[in-house]
């Protein structure tokens, strides 16, 4: 599996350091909030969200939503489908969407529009990775881990065909792996 990685883009220690910095900022920004609701976008967010939640020093709740636009491809199809909805009523709640990566922004723009219709008190976005040069839809990122180049990355929750999620770092997948 590690032989499939062309190079490590962001090592584990750098990820953990940035996660703690983000958590400190979120803790400060939501200090007056009764209970923050983290909404994780499955499946890629899971590793990041768990580490982030453990580092936030506030009362919080967690829920998950699953939407799909990739399938087994390396490119977003642009067609977004809801696979799993939230179990929590978010009306009047402070919501922080936790994403693994923002690429075109189409999926996240769709999700934000859907969640805004449910009347949250606030809605912000925290993403570990951002590919600004791929953006097709405007999304405001409130908490950003890293801007990255337009490379296909895996690890720390991100996958290709359900593989590589368990790598402790963000790595660039060798193109011959996904060109097969």
UniProtKB/TrEMBL annotation:
Enzyme type, top EC level: transferase
Reaction equation(s) it catalyzes: IMP + diphosphate = hypoxanthine + 5-phospho-alpha-D-ribose 1-diphosphate; GMP + diphosphate = guanine + 5-phospho-alpha-D-ribose 1-diphosphate
Coiled-coil regions listed: none
SUPFAM superfamilies, alphabetized: PRTase-like
Matching CDD domains: PRTases_typeI
Subcellular location: Cytoplasm
Gene Ontology molecular function: glycosyltransferase activity
Assigned EC number: 2.4.2.8
Residues annotated as domain Phosphoribosyltransferase: 13-160
InterPro entries: HGPRT (IPR050408), Hxn_phspho_trans (IPR005904), PRTase-like (IPR029057), PRTase_dom (IPR000836)
Keywords noted in UniProt: Cytoplasm, Glycosyltransferase, Magnesium, Metal-binding, Nucleotide-binding, Purine salvage, Transferase
Chief location category: cytoplasm
PANTHER family, per the entry: HYPOXANTHINE PHOSPHORIBOSYLTRANSFERASE, HYPOXANTHINE-GUANINE PHOSPHORIBOSYLTRANSFERASE
Protein family membership: Belongs to the purine/pyrimidine phosphoribosyltransferase family.
The protein, known as: Hypoxanthine phosphoribosyltransferase
Lineage per the UniProt record: Bacteria, Bacillati, Chloroflexota, Chloroflexia, Chloroflexales
Gene name, Swiss-Prot/TrEMBL: hpt
